[in-house]
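Co-fold these.
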Amino acid sequence: VTVVPVVSIVDDDQSVRDGIVDLVRAMGFDAEAFERAQDFLQSSRVDSTSCLITDVRMPGMTGFELHDRLVASGKRIPTVVVTAFPKDADRVRAQQGGVICYLAKPFDESELAACIMSALGSRAVGRRE
Amino acid sequence: MKLALIMSQRSFPLAPEITTENYQRCSHSEHEADVKDAEMATDRHWISGPAATFAFGPFQLFPTQRLLTEADKPVQLGSRAFDILLALLERPGDLVSKEELMARVWPNTFVAPVNLAVHISALRRALGDGRRGNRYVVNIPGRGYRFVAPVTVVEDVQLSARSERGREHNLPAHLTRPIGRAEIVNELAHQRPQQRLLTIVEGGMLDVGLTAVKKLIGAHDKGVWLIALTPLEDS
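Predicted complex below.
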């Protein structure tokens, strides 16, 4: 059975969450958003997520900390990082950490969509069970 | 539109031996571009500073206005595709790597290579690249892109053309040609060039006046300048 790819969004800004969820669903994927990184880590979606889209600056845990946590626990989820505060140091960090895209807000929907497609393509899309 | 001075025409596939360095040298000796302009020419804008415009085929690109025209009509082009085109035009004939293009178009961030491909494809569509045998942007697989059509670099007159004194003006480029007003145009243009100030009162006469004044470009030492007086509202 081919499974619809699962995309998860972590951002403390509700309007961004809503916007990305709409976009991902319009692309035909399963989307769910989380306000905090901890919420995502504790959810069952951690294991089914094929693409993670995360903000950087969030209360509690940053997007980079979330990414590091996932990598450390052996869960290499293709990740897209979006930020309202693009910095060169963060760009380098994202690149070295294996992040797929590091986008500045406000971003173009088509640009994010292309990043999501790259993330999904970076491992088998539509995993078989 | 400002007056433009054509600086150079070069066709890269035919003249690959012209390098950045010796091109700058020859542009200086031929056109006496001044030293300041050369100082302004950074690596990126080495051709003639940021005010240069680029012409290729039926297209013209105006970097400061962020405008691309085809046969004088604006072409719809997204800002990313515009940036890519500008980056390629600044180094016509050179291989520009994907990394360079992405760093230029997405400063401080990075995107997946597919993002670049998407905008390259939009750019090619806008240029009609590949249609009727036109080739502009060529992909060097795995390495980057190259602009292969001949590019003419047009220098903004205000930066370099000191000898063009008196030809400066700010008159609109496209005027409606007044019909049946040749006499008035002629009178204004040829019988009153000694007058330094011409006031056109009625709106309907504006094109007549401007057409006449256009003929005066070059006749006055300091150029010809249009000053639009703010319309007064009825009170």
